[in-house]
Design brief:
116 residues, alpha+beta, three-stranded antiparallel beta sheet, 22% strand, rod-shaped
């Protein structure tokens, strides 16, 4: 019985850590997609890139480390009526266990029609 346990324990620990790491990465992906959507909405309504960046950062409070202005790309910088505001957020999730590599780069993108 102890031999079987010793053989299976590393596999069970790896599966458990894999589930935890996948859950963290999936949560981060959902958070950055939501943040991009909020930033696109703010840009489309207010036509203010600074307010859109602030909306993105505010919309993703669970990210650790938090979003920064450098991770958020807004185009175009001037949102005229009828144009499409696109927000892209780049975020790197580092794995806490270190077993599955250093981390993974995630991207969240959202688009919304300006003035509408």
């Amino acid at each position: 019985m102890a031999v079987e346990f010793a053989l299976l324990l590393p596999i069970l620990v790896a599966v458990l850590l894999g589930v935890v790491e996948f859950g963290r990465a999936y949560n981060a992906q959902i958070s950055i997609t939501h943040a991009a959507r909020e930033a696109a909405r703010t840009m489309a309504v207010q036509d203010d890139p600074a307010a859109a960046r602030a909306a993105a950062i505010t919309a993703a409070p669970s990210l650790n480390p938090a979003l920064t202005d450098g991770q958020i790309t807004i185009s175009p910088s001037d949102c005229t009526a009828g144009a499409t505001a696109t927000v892209t957020i780049q975020y790197n999730v580092t794995f806490i266990s270190g077993w599955f590599g250093p981390g993974v780069d995630l991207t969240g993108t959202a688009a919304m029609q300006c003035g509408g």
